[in-house]
User: What shape does this take?
Amino acid sequence: METRAPYVLIGTFVLAAILAMFGFVYWLNNTGGIGPRTNYHVQFQGPVPGLLVGAGVLFNGIRVGEVTQLGLAPDNPRFVNATISVAATTPVRTDTKVGLDFQGLTGVPVVTLEGGMIVAKSGEPLTLIAEAGAGQSMTQAARDALRRVDTVLEDNSGPLKDTIANLKTFSDGLARNTGKIDGILAGLEKMTGGGTPAQKITYDLRTPQNLGPAGKTLSASLAIPEPTAVAMLQTQRMLFAPSGDNPGFADFLWADSIPKLVQARLIDSFENYDIAHAPLRTSDLGQADYQLLIDIRRFRIATDGETRVEIELSARIVDKNGKVVASRLVESSEKLDKVEPAAAVVAFDTAFARIARELIGWTVQAV
Assistant: This one.
């Protein structure tokens, strides 16, 4: 028995498949449906590389339609006219911004729509004008930027060549004077306190030892407060008059500030004279019967005329009530043959010893 093929059934199936395929494609191009569409004219003021009929149209990143027609503007062949068909519900306005974007690794071009507030008048045909350069791809933008850079370099080739030559001359000069530059930097570092600081050398004022036998002793308690002095004397540096640069004393330091050093050595001198009735500091003794108040006037090396060491003190003895019992100005100087720290300290020791003897004898008689 001969089998008869169902040709009508097969033909019907193939025709239905073709129609379904066309319907699916139409559905895709109409963003998932066959709803109402609205056409808009778009004009690009420049090339639109790769844009084809059927390319997608995105509004704020959402696909709303496709390009249905492309052509050159008859009045200006540099412009490109396009017709886009988008869903009727898309809020396209007269001031909606139009651009061209390139998506994916292959850079597939799509028309982009963004924003807009001004509603077009009813019945008025709407033409959207894309911004200048909207169709420019990143590759083209890079080419244009490199072309402008090349133009700038070409226009300024002479000054650039001179600048490079000057830099080479400057670097050669630095290389030739490396030693000098290192010396300058080392000097700046030292001047600003950087690097390893120079070691300071500390000198003390020697207490006189041979003050003679104690004749008359102190009959009342005596305190020696810290001497007063102007701000210039509140230092551990060696002072000069007139002041000037003395490199030999750059690392010189007294063992303490001048007022505290004089106080300590005066107390030591009184102790060497009579340890049993020696005065103390005010803080150690409390309320003493008398106080020996010292004001330092000079404690320096004088270089005007004959170089010498000068010490001058103003002394006052006051009782518990603050009454001045006695006052005296004592001073001493010692010739300095060589202006150097060791010789200067010896001269200060000699001058201070004379002042200490004079102050001790005067104080013992007054108290």
About this structure: The chain has seven helices and 14 strands.
